[in-house]
Amino acid sequence: MFRTMFGSVVLAAALAVLPASAQTGATVVGKAPGKVAMAQTVKATATITAIDAATRAVTLKGPKGNEMVVTAGPEVKNFAQIKVGDQVTVEYVESLALELKKGGGAPVAATAKEGAAAAKPGERPGMVGGRQVTVVADVIDLNAETQVVTLKGPQRTVELKVRDPEQFKLIKKGDQVQATYTEAMAIAVTPAAPAAPAAPTAPSAPAQPKK
């Protein structure tokens, strides 16, 4: 549900109109024996250049002039407050944490939690949402030559390449791996800055009479 909401559409639009420099690649943010975590963050800003109130179509323009049209669904509250010139800021974070469970014993299963919140009446349009999926899988095979671990989850069997030799040495058949995937997104609409008042013009000098 979360990825099909208006927020995911805005995110796709932001990525299309903004330069790649607005994104940060996957980074190892934490590592310990039997544990590793990675995260990726995308933050982008676009300007609203056109609004079709009848169809709720909003045109976004990036800093390089690229434009894309997105549709604000019914979950976008206070749509009438959106104006041409407003700034739309999208921040999207996803992370993956893997943890080795020595000896196993936990149920092989997948669980998911998600939630979202939209702006309250009277507030500026915006939303926050997130989803977390946790999967527990059994270690059923190991290939020491290729450092590949075969994991059997609740729905399928996958092969996982372990690039750290020290981490690979910790894994044995019968162990389990718990994978936790988390994604979160926040969208905010900021009013356009008021136009600066025009500078007063100096009075023109009176015309001189002709001699």
Provide an overview of this structure.
It is a single chain. With 211 residues, the protein is mainly β. The protein has one domain. Helix content is 8%, strand content 48%. It is built from two helices and ten strands, in the order αβββββββββαβ. Strands 1, 2, 3, 4, 5, 6, 7, 8, 9 and 10 form a ten-stranded antiparallel beta sheet that branches. β2 (35-52) and β3 (57-61) form a beta hairpin. The longest helix is centred in the N-terminal third of the chain and has 12 residues, at 6-17. The chain is elongated and about 105 Å long. The termini are far apart. Mean pLDDT is 80; it is low at 1-10 and 15-21.
Judged by helices, strands and strand pairing, the structural class is: mainly beta
Give the number of domains: 1
What gyration radius follows from the Cα positions, in whole Å? 26 Å
End-to-end C-alpha gap: 84 Å
User: What is the number of helical segments per DSSP (H or I, 4+ residues)?
Assistant: 2
Number of strands: 10
Q: Largest sheet, described in full?
A: 10 strands, antiparallel
Low-confidence spans: pLDDT under 50, at least 5 residues?
1-10, 15-21
What percentage of the residues does DSSP assign to strands (E)?
A: over 45%
Q: Which of globular, elongated, flat, extended, rod-shaped describes the shape?
A: elongated
Helix content: under 10%
Mean pLDDT, as a whole number? 80
The ordered H/E elements are HEEEEEEEEEHE
